[in-house]
């Protein structure tokens, strides 16, 4: 299969973790006789420095015409600490999601048995957790009208959703649930928010055409508690943009490090694969960033294209790195291994074998 892949390293640790994914992809090409085509493009703070824009037109064009985008990370301290900045690096990512119609962020949270001790949560609570968050990605409060009064003392962000925006991700989520443990939890705040009531009405209606899937609804505040008390009760979680953002970071506590979690952002035409984590500017160029979230995002890309054996080979190699403790210091404090070394180890262990992933 010939895939054209856009590489958007972005800011902070983004480029260095993405470089490890590319290393692993080259190993996949080699092992499975594929030819992939790569092209790099700037996004985020780094693009603002060179072009003045967080998402240059050329980058957007490249992404449109690519089969997939591998994304590093976005954000820089000088903007985080400056609420008055009108143009911000994150706008590059948000515009990319919006322009490409990447309406569903798929965020799996599955415990790795070899790293179970890494979570601050009790082992008997988190063992065998296997849930997937379907986060709506191009609507809601992130994209609603924003206002700031002339004197700067009153601000607002509108949370708006249409039935159509809710139903397209709901169908994806129900279909995923059908293939898994057949349970879908809608997370909202329908006791307070009108937009949440539309979610509940729309999703409940759609649920009727998936009778084999059991659906329940939880308020976000309760869902946050449930996820820490008993994460195993969840299979698919379906939620809006803002709740999904918060819940997915919270879910990473179950795994023990945000440096391990991948995501796929998909739409009708395009797909982008990005780690959960941010740009972690404090770690930039120190060779300590964990490349695994980026590598597993790349594996989700392979799965997206039906390259299941290839994806499996990547995941087996990642698993091996955990078992052999070839991990970065965020996973094992005493580890001396850096980003590069872990990337080399994982790419060097990508082989065509029938070894099955028996993670649990
Ligand atoms: C994420 C990130 C982004 C988001 C930021 C960087 C804009 O936190 O992908 O979860 O809020 O969507
Ligand atoms: Mn987030």
From TrEMBL:
Q: Which domain of life is it from?
A: Bacteria
Give the Isopropylmalate dehydrogenase-like domain ranges.
4-346
Molecular function, one GO term? 3-isopropylmalate dehydrogenase activity
Q: Where is the signal peptide?
A: none
* Sequence similarity: Belongs to the isocitrate and isopropylmalate dehydrogenases family.
Q: Which NCBIfam families match?
A: leuB
Q: What is this protein called?
A: 3-isopropylmalate dehydrogenase
- Please report the organism this UniProt entry assigns to the protein: Pricia mediterranea
Q: State the encoding gene.
A: leuB
């Amino acid at each position: 299969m010939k895939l054209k892949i856009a590489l958007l390293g972005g800011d902070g640790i983004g480029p260095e973790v993405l470089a490890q994914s590319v290393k692993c992809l080259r190993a996949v090409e080699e092992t499975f006789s594929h030819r992939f085509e790569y092209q790099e493009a700037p996004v985020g703070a780094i693009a603002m420095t060179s072009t003045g824009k967080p998402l240059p037109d050329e980058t957007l064009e490249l992404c449109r015409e690519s089969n997939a985008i591998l994304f590093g990370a976005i954000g820089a301290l000088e903007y985080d600490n400056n609420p008055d900045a009108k143009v911000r690096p994150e706008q590059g990512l948000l515009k990319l999601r919006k322009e490409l119609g990447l309406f569903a962020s798929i965020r799996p949270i599955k415990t790795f048995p070899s790293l179970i001790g890494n979570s601050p949560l009790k082992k008997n609570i988190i063992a065998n957790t296997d849930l997937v968050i379907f986060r709506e990605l191009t609507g809601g409060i992130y994209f609603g009208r924003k206002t700031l009064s002339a004197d700067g003392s009153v601000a607002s962000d509108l949370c708006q959703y249409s039935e159509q925006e809710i139903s397209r991700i709901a169908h994806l989520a129900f279909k995923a649930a059908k293939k898994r443990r057949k349970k879908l939890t809608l997370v909202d705040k329908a006791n307070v928010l009108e937009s949440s009531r539309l979610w509940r009405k729309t999703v409940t209606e759609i649920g009727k055409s998936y009778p084999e899937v059991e659906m329940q609804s939880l308020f976000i505040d309760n869902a946050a508690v449930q996820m820490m008390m008993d994460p195993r009760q969840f299979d698919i979680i379906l939620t809006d943009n803002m709740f999904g953002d918060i819940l997915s970071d919270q879910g990473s506590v179950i795994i023990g490090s945000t440096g391990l979690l991948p995501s796929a952002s998909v739409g009708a035409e395009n797909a982008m694969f990005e780690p959960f984590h941010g740009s972690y500017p404090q770690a930039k160029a120190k060779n300590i960033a964990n490349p695994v979230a980026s590598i597993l995002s790349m594996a989700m890309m392979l799965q997206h294209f039906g390259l299941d054996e290839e994806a499996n080979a990547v995941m087996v190699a990642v698993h091996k790195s955990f078992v052999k403790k070839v991990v970065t210091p965020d996973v094992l404090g005493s580890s001396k291994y850096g980003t590069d070394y872990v990337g080399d180890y994982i790419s060097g262990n990508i082989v065509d074998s029938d070894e099955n992933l028996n993670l649990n």
